[in-house]
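INFO batch 0412 | record 1 of 1 | parsing
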Amino acid sequence: MSLIRKSNTGKYGLVYHIVPPYGLMNDPNGLIYFKGQYHVFFQWNPTDTKHANKHWGHLVSDDMIQWKRVELALAPDQWFDKSGVYSGSAYVHQNQLWLFYTGNVKDEVGNASSYQCLAVSEDGIHFEKKGPLFEHPKGYTRHVRDPKVWYDARVDHYWMVVGAQTEDLKGDTLVYRSEDLLHWVLNGSISTEEKDFGYMWECPDVIPFEEKDAFIYSPQGIEATGERFNNLYQTVVQLGKFTIDGKFIVEEENLTEVDAGFDYYAPQSFQAEDGRILQYGWMGIPEGKEGLIPTIQDGWIHALTIPREVSVQNGKYLQKPARELWNLTTDVQKIQWNATRFESVFSSPAQVWTVNWKEAVQDKLA
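INFO prediction complete | emitting tokens
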């Protein structure tokens, strides 16, 4: 049976999470609310369960609960992206959906080039590629990718952050600015108090909040220190202020992991219809052990996390499940402080429970 005829309806098929119909899924891309629907694009290899032949898969939803698969958004079919359509972001401009992505190109001997590219759509489904937006920056290897774009009303222009690796093999994030989303100027880079912090920074994201802004990125090559950074690759967040001249000022050392779980990487934020900031991540690392994941037998691998609402309050980066997911919960069942009763409630492995310990502990201490 060909891979394309297989589906994710096997033993390990997921219900709450976005998964590929077949093939390999990784980074969430182009998250956006456009013309009354939520759009989730994602890195997708539709022909194998290995990291190669990257396309942009595409789903739409009215409520972030029921998702509909629509036709492939972007394929590696141009000279500037022929070896892979890599990660990027989306922006609504002039009632059109603009996708910013990295085109990957490899020559006959494996030398790689990368281009930050644009594709535009009137209906959010069919896209016209416009090609590369600017030249490759000097002083950096070909590992420059994952553009994230947003508008800054304070200065009436746009910013783009791009993950990068310097020629001395250090992770960095480049900052570009533009007045029209077409012509971009290199503004500088985002530096942090962490020196020599990994050999590559992927999927950067700057989220403006009223209290403090959040700078999120996924560094590679971090050594574990105690209970920190124990995964193969990490995603971290720092709080500070993104200034009007394109610098990120960290007032005090506050770098922390966004998620210390084993399967969380390359998150991307976007704004919901009501203004909330939501975030999806890729649920599928480490790379070295992917061959052991049993879903490969059914022709698919990896998933996205559930959507999270993110915010900054009292100097802390906070996350919680998106409120849309609460529509999937059932009635509350209170549990008494009794071991026998506790065991009977959880006797069925087919049931899923959400436990509110806070109220129970308060009752116990009262």
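INFO post-check: The domain at 3-328 is CATH 2.115.10.20 (Tachylectin-2; Chain A).
INFO record closed
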